[in-house]
Amino acid sequence: MTRKFSHQPRIKFVAKAALLSVSCTALGFLSDIAQVRAQSSGASQLPPVEVSPPSEPKRRATGTSTSQRADRNAKRRRAQVARRPETQPAPKAFGESQDARTETVGIYANSTSSATKTNTPLVNIPQSVSVLTKDFIQDQSFQSLTDVTRYVPGVAIHQGEGNRDELVIRGVDSSANFFVNGFRDDVQYFRDLYNTQSLEILKGPSALIFGRGAGGGLVNRTLKEADGTRVYEATMQTGSYGDKRIALDAGQAVNENVAVRFNAFYENSDTFRDFGHLERYGINPTVTLKPTDDTKIKLSYEFYHDFRLADRGNPSQGLPGGATRFNPTAPFAPNGDLTTFFGSPIYNSAKVEVQTGMAIIEHDFGNGLTVRNGSIYADYNRGYRNVYPGGTGAPAAAGGGAVTPDQTTLSLNAYQNYTPRENAFNQTDFVYKTATGPVLHTIAFGTEFGRQTGLSLRNSGQFPQVSPTSPYVLVNPFNPTFFGPVTFNHIASDANSKYRLNIESGYVQDQIEVTRWLQLIGGVRYDRFDLDYVNFNGNGLTAPVGLTLSRTDNLVSPRGGVVIKPIDPLSLYASYSISYLPASGDQFGALNARSGLLKPEEFTNKEFGWKWDILPRLTFTTAFFQLDRENTPIRDSNDSTIVLAAGHSRVYGIEAGLAGYVTDKWQMTAGYANLNATFVSDTSNTGSPTAVRRTASISSSVDADLSR
Q: What pLDDT was estimated at residue 92?
């Protein structure tokens, strides 16, 4: 068991460019001067004087220089009149901005389309949804998901082996429940927020919108787009441990039919941990085209690079009584020094390069029907290597990866993983607004098709200074940083596989406004999950050499909810939803000859709560929920070679949040969560433990107006 710590104080400088335009006419200017002089002198008003233009001289037959000058002056006057701003039509606006679309101001967002496929006010969504805006991200100088989600109730941070984003949402751990603009972004890596417009965190199953998995919840990144907003912003940051970061956000409308935007950043920094270092950078140009007033085409490309020292944190302190006994709440730190690195600065590393292309077409048919078709292709070149506290192959007396009770010995293990992946998805979403008598309907229906291909290759580390094939080395826990040689070789228990997943999905949903105070939502999604998996590494009965496994799951995920609004700013809601996770797991690595026969895991969420706009831009939310996870694969306590889909766990709890403007100058985000977890059924020998987790977070900012 290891723990990870992070601390990075920063100083940020922001430079913004704005366009200031001033216009006046000479007559207005002179008139103002005349009025001021008259008032200052106290003179009485003079009688009006009428001035008549001189009579036009007779035109001479041969023309003279005088008449030519008059003609030129007349033409000049006509040209000046033609060029007057007040005679020109106002330039046509490019379109509605992202902030205007969701009524976002500061850290407050009024609506989102992530939860329902339609732009719906948060108060009308029967689900716990947190929206973190770009202003909230910038005000706190957040650059990573793990930093910003600490302020979301019900979300906990997982270590992720020091090489990826990993969150625990409502007690469900996953490194795959990440999305970008509604498309699956499920590869394990650290994401940066330099081009993020907002983060939407949805709690509970959201299979109707996003498909498989996401039993506890998910995170969707909405990226900044070329929406015609004029923005020129450069951000420079410096901080402790040699931190240096620069970011650029520039964009505007080229004309009424074309808008462009460019986001880029570069960061280079050490960390408070010994030998800690990271370098990352990215570019994201986007363009939006409007061939007609009813059609938009959005194009985007992103290249992202992240290379850093992989750090799995500190080991636990072993306790007397055996290698499996340790203190789970107190990591070992030599002489209280948390900067000590337990690994190898030579070998520990995590690298990812991501290239993403995106194209979205939106069209309004003008009769209540709109359509959105989006495609994405993403190539993830990703791998990592770790030397870390571990007990594989080491003597029992070596602590099993924890520091021995007498604090004299610690064992280290090593491995490397190469896990590239390619994702390709296409989504088509129709939204139709209609009415049946006094009842209003917003009907959403559509399809999703996708293919995901990749491989998983793991090599275990050996320490030659112990023996040519030794999987461990013993070190002094007070001097644990390892500088010796490590070789990486493939052994029988290491993963060596490739996969191809084809996805076919369709859904339908209806948001019904029965009356002003009663709204209903209901829908269902069908997913066909077709996975081909080839294992190139034999490991006995579960996967002979070259075993090809194919599994097809047909999943039907319903959703229902009711919203009651006694008054417009207040909603009371209840909801029910289900999602499924196929037996291959969220990273496709759990499929073998036995698990391939198991039923998908099922997540069922029952929730009720309320949302209250206390002030026009201040919302208080509360949710009570029960989340059941069934068909969890577990090994039979009587025969470890048998895997059963018999596990059933339950998480129930309460979440509360406050976000928005307390006053015009005071913005605030606050949250509280209390989660209780228990095993409902269990066939192992671990009994039925109960876990309780309470979290609280508060963030606020005050804007001072020094001009008053």
A: 59
Q: φ, ψ for residue 87 (rounded to 5)?
A: -95, -10
Tokens matching residue 175: 């490194």
Q: What distance in Å separates the CA atoms of residue 109 and residue 103, rounded to the nearest whole number?
A: 6
The residue type at 305 = H
Gyration radius of the chain's alpha carbons:
32
Is 260's pLDDT higher than 90? yes
CA gap 5, 272 in Å, rounded: 9
Strand 326-331 and strand 314-318: pairing?
A: antiparallel
Question: What local confidence, expressed as pLDDT, does residue 424 receive?
Answer: 98
> Which amino acid, one-letter code, is at 418?
Y
| Rounded-to-integer distance, Cα 702 and Cα 367, Å | 45
The pLDDT tens digits of the residues spanning 388-408 come to: 999 999 888 888 888 999 999
DSSP state of 206: -
d(CA 13, CA 9): 14
Q: What is the pTM of this model?
A: 0.83
pLDDT in tens, 346-403: 999 999 999 999 999 999 999 999 999 999 999 999 999 999 999 999 888 888 888 9
Which of these, 511, 508, 621, 576, lies nearest to 122 by C-alpha position? 621
Residue 574 structure tokens: 């209840």
Burial grade of 250 (CB within 10 A; 0-12, 13-18, 19 or more): middle
- Per-residue b or e along 594-619, where b marks 16 or more CB atoms closer than 10 Å to that residue's CB: bbbebebbbbbbebbbebbbeeebbb
Q: Which of 224, 220, 233, 231 is nearest to 287 (CA)?
A: 224
With beta carbons less than 8 A apart as the criterion, state whether 598 and 583 touch: yes
